[in-house]
Amino acid sequence: MSVSVTRASSDRKTIRLFGCVAVLGLAIAHSAIAADSLVVKAAKPAPAADEWTGFYFGGHVGYTRGNARVTLSDPDPLTFTKSFGTLTGGVQAGYNWLLSSRVLLGVEADISFPNYLAADEVIWFRTTTDTDIAEKLDYMATLRGRIGYAFPRWMIYATAGPALAQGRFLQTPGVIEDIDKVLRLHGGWSAGFGAETIIERGWTARLEYLYRGFSHAGILFASGTGAGSAFDTHTLRVGLNYHFSAPADAAGKSASADAPKTQFENWQMYGQITYIQQGYPSFHSPYLGANSFTPWAQTRNTSSAGVALDVKLWEGGELYYTPELLQGFGLHNTTGAAGFPNGEAQKSNFPDPRYTTSRLFLRQTFGFGGEQETVEGSYHGQMSGKQDVSRLTIQIGKFPVHDVFDYNSYAWEPREDFLNWSIWAAGAFDYPADKVGLGYGAVVELNQKYWALRLGYFLVGNVPNSNEFDMNLFSRGAYVLEHETRYSLFSHAGKVRVGIWADTYFSGSYSEAVDLTLLNPGLDPTDAIMLTRRDRTKYGYYINFEQSVRDDVGVFGRYSWNNGKNEISAFTDIDESLSLGTVLRGKSWGRPDDKIGIAGAFNGISKDHRDYLAVGGLGILIGDGRINYRGEKILETYYALSLMKDVVFTFDYQFMVNPAHNADRGPVSIFSGRLHGEF
Predict the structure, then answer these.
(1) Is 218 found in the same domain as 146?
(2) What is the pTM of this model?
(3) For residue range 159-170, what is the model confidence (pLDDT) as tens digits?
(4) Which of 226, 243, 260 is the last residue in one of the domains?
(5) At 384, which CATH number?
(6) 115 closest CA partner among 142, 149, 140
(7) 261 in a structural domain
(8) Which of 42, 129, 428, 657 shows a CA-CA span of 20 to 30 A to 316?
(9) CB 280 within 8 A of CB 297
(10) Which domain, by its residues, includes 130?
(11) What are residue 235's DSSP bridge partners?
């Protein structure tokens, strides 16, 4: 059970992650100082009352430390205390009134969610000889009044009001299911204080302390065991708010005259929200295993929301921070197909939103002079502006490997383009990541007009499919080398990227696991492969191309391969993959912001890999108990309908033959609806 992770391990993770909050605070302070210096230089007047008065909306991130007082009856009464800690993130909205006396009155509602690591959501747990009992935190919410005093560019305030938290009580093993779950609400109250400063016209940053005390909530499991707790928390957090009633004239200096309200000289912000509903009807299946799509109809949803905060620190130096809230489940808890049909479905499966630091990295660019190019800003870690075409870039921190490697203009972002894992990515590229798809590493890139060369080193999981990273630097880890060539074919731009990679990590051998299973009848193959784990190297390559055919039509494709001897480290159960597709924009039928995509993928696995599955082994995403091997075949098509500026609804259809490389099951028709908005 996930709550069996030791508290010491959890504390180490939260201490490391607490550095994210400190860095963000420094970034906001830098922006505030820069904004103040611009104001002094320009001798701008003090903000009027309407700078503070009105509705606002924003987000926050911080560190929460708490203490729980627990009562159990199993069957004898037992009481104990437990401390816990986690990064938290969420959103807030409110309304301010600034009186003529400069006294500020306000009301604010907020909701906060724990960090995505399994141990960080645990309020308390108890292990006995027969069962594990725990309570996990789903969310905390408050509704508070505020009173403060506003100075020309900043204000201080105190705040208090009622609070609410939802706890998820779990018992493993359970009587009704493998895990019995009961939800309970904790009532309570909150109080705190903070300071808020204007960083640009319409934008404020804050530093806030908040105490929350939650009353006792108790439950009775089906087994007859009783459990209950009360807890309180102390949170230090930073936040960013947008004030809708702020005057239109800019107090800060925008990046350009026509720049949007989220782009300024020293910092920029981009945001997105995506919701996907996906399902399939019943299909043929004479048998199924632990990692199989169920043959009866099912539907699941995922959602994500986040902002990207990009700060210019000095000449060529930039800090990128992207907090996100992730929620939902992939079909069958993100198992059942190697080319999984939802690119937003991560492997941790969150019943309620969970906070994650999706990006936190430093980038330093050294320009060599000469010709310059305009770089468009984006949510994926890029500030807008001009750069030397000839440049050297160094990037270090936390970010997805796919931010830098295996990029393709037509198939790369499942929030906007194709959804299938083996179409938006090179299926056999077992790139290093945690269960959410994030990683830590460093990249060096040399860019020239017609080519680029990139080299990266990344941490790998301490075991396959893990949220814990192996800190044996360089003796274990992943290396990726990519060369990009840019060219023009009949006056239409094209690119080819060739990447080679090697991962050295603690992993098991498919063939050795099969041998152990045959020599030890009754030994589970999944346990057998764990017994074979040691330092092993998986290597492979990918070829990725994109070609514009005309202004509104493009084609793309990928081929990838790995040696297929060892367990998959982090991505999916594919050892060879080929995908081809095209994207057509709607200019020809009067809908220039719409687009149609159609693509196909063929995925295969090595002989060692299929032998392991045949004896009942489980991979990261697949394992039907046995296998009648055939390559997995996928056809995907979508229509993206622009509803309004930056809001798109997409209907997506996928037809999958031989799901999980098994000809005995399927085919499966998968239908999806996706709503995506950005700013």
Answers:
(1) yes
(2) 0.89
(3) 999 999 999 999
(4) 243
(5) 2.40.160.180
(6) 140
(7) no
(8) 42
(9) yes
(10) 2-243
(11) 64, 210
